[in-house]
């Protein structure tokens, strides 16, 4: 298996623009997680899905952030409009099970908002 | 909510020595605790999981302990090598039993000098 695939790996955009990050989880994994990593705050959980259904989005910072999982093999994280403070590395991870399962992370999408 | 503290941002040791990293949590004892390794520019990679009823877990040169009285986990790398240099993250569930929200410490950056 190719592992969790994220795109783009790097994104540079200007404030106010829409950003869409994409994730393909490992086939057969039931849970999908979106995390954001910064030096100041470390890895923060934004949202997770179980069987394509959003379970907890309490970590999503603002209404500017939205996430979807239209099917078991694809998820998106959208920021609209983007702001400089959104600059971070965004990781997608998948797991066989929501309960005590190890997470398999993608390589991340580094977002820079100017 | 649960808080995790990895009390060393950085740890420098000599090759061949044992590295010991600490992870403390503040509130209820989680059902399990995980350790991950993260290399620069890469996503975290799962290393070990230890459950609350396990005192110790080993995998090759790695050893993890879990003390629910002290609310602490120790992560040991014996016979350390320069290739062990990376950031190590501990993670545990923040769900009060729901085991859905895996939260991470900020990590300890380990440098092993030859």
Q: Which strand-content bin applies to the residues of chain A?
A: over 45%
Q: Count of DSSP E strands of chain A?
A: 11
Give the helices and strands of chain B as they follow along the chain.
EEEEEEEEEEE
Average predicted confidence as pLDDT of chain B:
90
Oligomer: heterodimer
Helix content of chain A: under 10%
Assign the structural class of chain B, choosing from mainly alpha, mainly beta, alpha/beta, alpha+beta, or little secondary structure.
mainly beta
In total, the number of strands of chain B is 11
Please report the two chains with the greatest interface, counting residues with C-beta closer than 8 angstroms to the partner's C-beta: A-B, 24 and 25 residues
Please work out how many helical segments of chain B DSSP would assign: 0
The helix tally of chain A amounts to 0
Topology of chain A as a string of helices (H) and strands (E): EEEEEEEEEEE
- The share of residues in extended strands of chain B comes to over 45%
| Fraction in helix of chain B | under 10%
Secondary structure class of chain A reads mainly beta
Per the principal axes of the C-alpha atoms, what is the gross shape of chain B? globular
What is the alpha-carbon Rg of chain B in Å? 14 Å
Give a structural overview.
The complex is a heterodimer of chains A (114) and B (114). Chain A has strands at 5-7, 10-13, 19-24, 31-38, 42-50, 53-56, 65-71, 74-79, 88-95, 104-105, 109-113. By secondary structure, chain A is an all-beta fold. The model of chain A has no long low-confidence stretch (mean pLDDT 93). Chain B has strands spanning 4-5, 10-14, 19-25, 32-38, 45-51, 56-59, 62-67, 72-77, 86-93, 102-104, 108-113. In chain B, the strands form two sheets. In chain B, strands 2, 4, 5, 9, 10 and 11 form a six-stranded mixed beta sheet that branches. Chain B has a five-stranded antiparallel beta sheet with strand order 1-3-8-7-6, with no helix packed on it. Chain B starts with a strand and ends with a strand. The mean pLDDT of chain B is 90. Classes of the chains: A mainly beta (114), B mainly beta (114).
